[in-house]
Specification:
Length: 456
């Protein structure tokens, strides 16, 4: 019996009792759980009181095509279970019509039990993916309280709680973390939940900007201040008055410009380039960097007084590899976005592709994951994202493991299996159901391995 089979709760309906029992026994031997009924009325009663992963029903019972009514009753369940019709050859046209009404498949009598089990197992995989998608949709609904920032991991819940706490105040916030972790998204969320939320949040990325450009961008200029200054222009500080100014990559700001920024933060006055007249501004200041500012201060690349001025509250955003359990939720969120953008109907990610997405190191963090999912949605031929659509950097390299996976060469198979299970459990924060899905083994087998290797 294959461990990778999704063990399912199945309802079998057939007015021929012996035939129903044969189908049930064939499925139970593979680890599925079966309820058996012998009429439409009994089936309806079961469906009202219990949820099923798969329904197998005879098309014609007691001379009527009651299987179509079973199909109709199954549609009331959420998520809707796949319905497999069992039929005599003469009723195949009816079954083909039923496919257009939502039936999963049909199987002819007399049953080929091997083919029957294979079809049921494929339906079980489909239902498992649908249940996962349904659960992810529910999580997205319940996780939209703070600007829809996606993440249910402990690491994300901690930073979300800090962001909620600091949002109502005017205290400066310094967001740190690697590139692509969502610092501007957090800055906007903090602004929107502050008392300034009805006014502007004005962003500026300092990376690569010279002192003269930064000064003009931040403070503005008056007409005639330099060649090409044909009119007065307000800077970002004035534009953000009574709102929030967000400076991204503040660690890249030239030292001379840091002194000018510090003066504005201390006295709330800006002087446009080419003018001597100070202008009063009132802004909430949020900054972000992917650099270690403490080290930059020690190395004299960043002013210590400015550092202490901007770090009223420091919030470090975790890298995606530090919150891998959020990856399925993020993938589902991005799939929904790009389905709308490209008029696609992607419903799920195939297990192999999800395993590779979960195991990758994501040096570009959420931004890189978003781009990867967008590429996969564009390239997808069917309703699922497969491993063949993964970006090249995520696919296994010839002659080696995929990026982000441990090098297990030179150790025994038993040691390799132990490490694989240990790392997978760590990756999904101990969620054994999710780990068994990724590893492609049954939960019972995983529990036995955990006990055998003393991992839990």
């Amino acid at each position: 019996m294959a461990d990778s089979i999704h063990k399912s709760q199945i309802l079998v309906i057939d007015d021929e009792r012996e035939h129903a029992e044969v189908m049930c026994e064939a499925l139970v031997r593979q680890g599925h759980r079966c309820d058996v009924t012998y009429s439409l009325a009994q089936a309806r009663d079961k469906l009202q009181h219990k949820a099923y992963d798969i329904i197998v029903t005879d098309l014609v019972m007691e001379g009527r095509r009651d299987g179509l009514l079973v199909l109709e009753a199954a549609a009331s369940q959420t998520p809707t279970p796949p319905v497999i019709l069992v039929t005599a050859h003469a009723d195949i046209p009816t079954c083909k019509e039923a496919l257009s009404q939502g039936a999963y498949d049909y199987i002819e009598k007399p049953l080929d039990l091997e083919y029957f089990r294979a079809q049921v197992n494929r339906a079980a995989e489909r239902m498992a993916l649908e249940k996962q998608n349904h659960a992810l949709r529910e999580q997205l609904v319940h996780n939209s309280g703070f600007e829809g920032i996606i993440g249910t991991s402990q690491a994300m819940q901690q930073v979300l709680q800090m962001a909620r706490q600091v949002a109502p105040s005017d205290i400066p916030v310094l967001l740190t973390g690697e590139s692509g972790t969502g610092k501007e998204l957090f800055a906007r969320a903090i602004h929107n939940h502050s008392r300034r939320g009805k006014n502007r949040m004005v962003p500026l990325n300092c990376a690569g900007l010279s002192e003269s450009i930064l000064e003009d961008e931040l403070f503005g200029h008056v007409r005639g201040a330099f060649t090409g200054a044909t009119s007065d222009r307000e800077g970002r500080f004035e534009h953000a008055d009574r709102g929030t100014l967000f400076l991204d990559e503040i660690g890249d700001m030239p030292l001379t410009m840091q002194a000018k920024l510090l003066r504005v933060l201390e006295n709330g006055e800006v002087v446009r380039v080419g003018s001597n007249e100070p202008r009063q501004v009132n802004v909430r200041f949020i900054s972000a960097t992917n650099r270690n500012l403490e080290q930059a201060v020690e190395e004299k690349h960043f002013r210590e007084d400015l550092y202490f001025r901007i770090k009223g509250v420091t919030i470090r955003l975790p890298a995606l590899r530090e919150r891998r359990e959020d990856i399925p939720l993020l993938i589902h969120y991005f799939i929904e976005q790009f389905n709308r953008k490209y008029n696609k109907e992607i419903t799920a990610v195939e297990p192999q592709a999800q395993q590779m997405l979960m195991g990758y190191g994501w040096p570009g963090n959420v931004r890189q994951l978003r781009n990867a999912v967008e590429n996969m949605v564009v390239l997808a031929q069917g309703e699922r994202l497969s491993a063949s659509t993964l970006p090249v950097e995520i696919q296994p390299r010839a002659g080696g493991a995929s990026s982000g996976m441990n090098n297990l060469v030179g150790i025994s198979i038993e040691q390799a299996e132990k490490e694989l299970i240990r790392n997978t459990l760590k990756m999904v924060n101990g969620n054994r159901e999710q780990a068994s899905e990724i590893l492609g083994i049954g939960e019972r087998t995983l529990y036995r391995k955990i006990k055998e290797y003393e991992l839990g």
